[in-house]
């Protein structure tokens, strides 16, 4: 049977929702080279130790072993994505995406009797930033569609299992616009919010490395006014990491570690040679700056295009910056949503479902 899934291949994290299963899967977009690790105590969940070997004709380097997500987070040699990476062409993005799809297919299911290769077929919905969509959506689709193989190595509960991930179709849409589609429709894809569905809506979707400003009018993306910027929350997180290191000699091993602290409101770091330091003032400075810049951009866009009826600020960056943005916005009213980092992926799933319903899937 073919599964339909939405997958948001984010620079910060890859999110997957499979049609019919309620909970999204989230894997940080970090990988490091894999090796035979010493396991003193096995981790208590597979997501904590994704150790995979991936074969795919679409990877520049096939058949490599990787630690993915949380397992790579503490590794010296880990890599997070940079501004210059393009998720449509990056091996790293594809590695995390395939791992997530393989995991989503077998998580919580016991190994079939007899073992051997397991197979899953997908129709997926996914997306690209406004600015790379035009030039890269075909290449992105071609990279995803096809047959890939993910073998789980030392991963708890899954070791020894190999999944052939067959992607039959990939429906590529635009970040931010998909989030709005999700907000405007219910699970049966019927309109649940007339104002959003029929109106002219501005969106500012703040990701890790890109911020998208699609304008959506009656659910169509406005070609002239939609734009994007090549910065996101990660740009500011990197500055905070640098300044904390310069001032206090404390180095966060990854952005994910830093944002984890900020989310839990743990602003104290331990200094070498005893003593603690408060990083809150540094966070306030950079987040305040980010918020000001975003509010200025939103105001400028709204002035340029006064047909916009309301402006949604979405993406994980909106959750992180919300209070700072509200303050910087003054009396300009902006809309926020809960769990806004997950809106795109839900939108991608709905778009995949709607396309899958319309056209027969090519079979070979
Ligand atoms: N609930 C939250 N609270 C605070 N910060 C968050 C939250 N969710 C995500 N973030 C942070 O916001 C930033 C953007 O997250 P998001 O998941 O939207 O990025 P992404 O989709 O992976 O990146 P991109 O859109 O650039 O590909 C990240 O740095 C992330 O750590
Ligand atoms: Mg994103």
From TrEMBL:
Residues 6-176 form the Actin-like protein N-terminal domain. This is ParM/StbA family protein. It holds the Pfam family ALP_N. InterPro entries: ALP_N, ATPase_NBD, MreB-like_C. SUPFAM superfamilies: Actin-like ATPase domain. Residues 205-323 form the Actin homologue MreB-like C-terminal domain. It comes from Paenibacillus haidiansis. Gene3D superfamilies: 3.30.420.40. It comes from the Bacteria.
């Amino acid at each position: 049977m073919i599964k339909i899934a939405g997958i948001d291949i984010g620079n910060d994290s890859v999110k997957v929702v499979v049609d019919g299963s309620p909970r999204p899967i989230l894997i940080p977009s970090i990988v490091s080279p894999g090796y035979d690790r010493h396991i003193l105590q096995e981790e208590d969940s597979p997501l904590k130790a994704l150790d995979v070997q991936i074969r795919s004709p679409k990877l520049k380097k096939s058949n490599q072993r990787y630690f993915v997500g949380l397992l790579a987070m503490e590794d010296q040699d880990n890599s997070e994505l940079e501004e210059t990476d393009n998720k449509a062409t990056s091996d790293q993005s594809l590695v995390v995406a395939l791992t997530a799809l393989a995991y989503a297919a077998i998580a919580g299911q016991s190994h079939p009797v007899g073992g051997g290769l397991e197979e899953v077929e997908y129709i997926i919905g996914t997306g690209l930033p406004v600015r790379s969509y035009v030039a890269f959506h075909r290449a992105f689709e071609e990279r995803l569609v096809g047959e890939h193989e993910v073998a789980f190595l030392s991963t708890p509960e899954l070791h020894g299992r190999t999944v052939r991930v067959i992607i039959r179709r990939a429906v590529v849409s635009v970040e931010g616009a998909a989030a709005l589609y999700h907000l405007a429709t219910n699970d049966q894809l019927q309109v649940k919010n007339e104002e959003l569905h029929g109106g002219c809506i501005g969106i500012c979707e703040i990701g890790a490395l890109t911020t998208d400003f699609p304008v959506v009018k009656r659910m169509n993306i406005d070609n002239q006014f939609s734009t994007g910027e090549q910065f996101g929350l990660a740009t500011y997180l990197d500055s905070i990491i640098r300044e904390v290191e310069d001032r206090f000699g404390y180095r966060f091993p990854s952005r994910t570690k830093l944002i984890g602290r900020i989310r839990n409101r743990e602003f104290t770091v331990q200094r070498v040679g005893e003593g603690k330091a408060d990083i809150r003032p540094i966070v306030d400075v950079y987040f305040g700056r980010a918020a000001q810049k975003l509010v200025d951009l939103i105001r400028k866009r709204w002035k340029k295009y006064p047909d916009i009826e309301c402006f949604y600020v979405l993406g994980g960056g909106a959750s992180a910056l919300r209070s700072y943005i509200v303050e910087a916005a003054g009396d300009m009213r902006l809309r926020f949503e809960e769990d806004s980092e997950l809106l795109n992926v839900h939108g991608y799933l709905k778009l995949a479902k709607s396309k899958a319903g319309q056209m027969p899937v090519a079979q070979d």
